[in-house]
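Worked problem 6 (solution included).
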Amino acid sequence: MPAQLSLYTRHGCHLCEDMERMLSELAMELDFETEIIPIDNSLELEQGYGHRVPVLMMGDNVICEYFLDKAALISAVTKVKN
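Solution. The predicted structure is:
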């Protein structure tokens, strides 16, 4: 079963688009799925993630913010697989 990740994004955010593209390129190789969660229309999400997007999470754990940390991603996905 693939690891489940969440990516908090904002419309028009080039960093968000970059991370989403990189994650889609790595998804099959590392065996994970990513739910894209736009924060634009949610006051609660805006308050929590507004200046930090993109934010990549696995459950309640932040994997990385702003830029993809491939080593942290591999570590998180590997932990859930073992």
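Discussion: The two ends are 12 Å apart (CA to CA).
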